[in-house]
Amino acid sequence: MSFDIALSGLNAINDELDTISNNIANAGTYGFKSSRANFASMYAGTQPIGVEVGSQTQSINQGGSVLSTGRGMDAAIQGRGFFTTKDNSGALLYTRVGIFSADPDGYVVDSQGRRAQGYAAVATGSALGAMGDLQVPTGQVPAKASDSLTYVGNLSADWPVPAAPFSTANPQSFNSSMVSVVYDSLGVQHSMTQYFVKTGTNQVTAHYTFDGAALGATTPLNFNTSGQLVAPVAPVALALGTPTGAAPLTVNVNYTNTTQFAGEATTTVNNANGYASGILTGVQLEKDGSVMAQYSNGQKQSVGALALATFPNEGGLSPVSDTSWTPSKSSGSPVYFTPGSGTTDELTVGSLEQSNVDVASQLVGLMSSQRNYQANTKVISTENQMMQSLMQAV
């Protein structure tokens, strides 16, 4: 019987060595979680018959250190949660390895080519759409016509009233000018120029041109003795005309917070909305899991958000290849959230989670296993010598 007991010890230690060696081998694997072999004694009734590895415990809740990569499509989960991916067979796999990219068809995929699962963006509002494959539009984003322009500046109280009647051709007839870039519905750039003319005490009048042509519209700006606009000036709707091939263009100019103080005339804000069409130049993740498409026209557009899965018992997940896990009866069913919501934490973008293997403790365990292995072989050797002595005595 002692032969069998010692043999069970050797088998159990071999299983433990498999676990330790797997941990050490994956010490450099992103998102890997170490495991521990748990020994359990065996009995036949009251008769001891040895030992076995009764279970494996995964250290899933123990995070690995975070490695900064600087890559915009790398992400580490700060706390709970698993990235959700779908392989070619349609099976869902869960991983802590946040290495993503966009494939030629625009789908967001992980380093194994599996499609990342998440919530699609909705055209209007901040709500998210149905969960599924995340895809970045690969076509050209359309142009957006300008419809508002914000101007904030200081129109100097030291300006004199020009003696000459206003004329864009005569710089002596206005005190200052400012050019703004606006876009039509085709994305063509146009210039809209504002000419500021001191017309009286605490009063400045703005004149406008579009691509050099006078619009004939004017806006009086009246200031109080404190240099502030007398009353909030409603946005001025300027009909700029109809550019060739494009829709009619109207821009609302907002002068809120413009002042008239002594000293130098300054411009702090001169910004029109709208933009030209653009092509996709890159994809970036945000800490809330948003997948942001970046375009050549400087615009960013959210195409959705990654989904993170949590489980009632994450230690019960079944490990599979490619540093991934699948649900089991012990783990329970997944619950999905966007990063930072529910029971999940935000992402650390431009970083990856490293293996949580403590190599030093694994080496200590390796030495302990070696000692226990030698002790069990000593039992077998001793039993063998006793059997030989018995046979010689017969």
Descriptive notes:
Strand 14 (203-210) and strand 15 form a beta hairpin. The longest helix is centred in the C-terminal third of the chain and has 35 residues, at 359-393. The strands form seven sheets. Strands 5, 6, 9, 10, 19, 20, 21, 22, 23, 24 and 25 form an eleven-stranded antiparallel β-sheet that branches. The chain has a four-stranded mixed β-sheet with strand order 16-17-11-18, with no helix packed on it. The chain has a four-stranded antiparallel β-sheet with strand order 12-13-14-15, with no helix packed on it. The protein has two helices and 27 strands. The chain has helices at 2-25, 359-393; strands at 35-44, 47-58, 66-68, 75-77, 82-86, 92-95, 100-102, 108-110, 115-121, 128-133, 148-154, 176-183, 189-200, 203-210, 213-222, 236-241, 249-254, 266-272, 280-285, 290-295, 300-306, 308-310, 318-320, 324-326, 335-337, 347-349, 351-353. It is mainly beta.
Indicate the proportion of strand residues. Answer: 35-45%
- Helical fraction equals 10-25%
The ordered string of helix (H) and strand (E) elements is HEEEEEEEEEEEEEEEEEEEEEEEEEEEH
Residue windows where pLDDT falls under 50 for at least 5 positions: none
Counted by DSSP, the helix tally is 2
List keywords for this structure.
394 residues; mainly beta; Tick-borne Encephalitis virus Glycoprotein, domain 1; eleven-stranded antiparallel beta sheet; four-stranded mixed beta sheet; rod-shaped
Summarize the structure.
The chain is mostly beta strands and 394 residues long. It has helices at residues 2-25, 359-393, and strands spanning 35-44, 47-58, 66-68, 75-77, 82-86, 92-95, 100-102, 108-110, 115-121, 128-133, 148-154, 176-183, 189-200, 203-210, 213-222, 236-241, 249-254, 266-272, 280-285, 290-295, 300-306, 308-310, 318-320, 324-326, 335-337, 347-349, 351-353. The radius of gyration is 36 Å and the shape is rod-shaped.
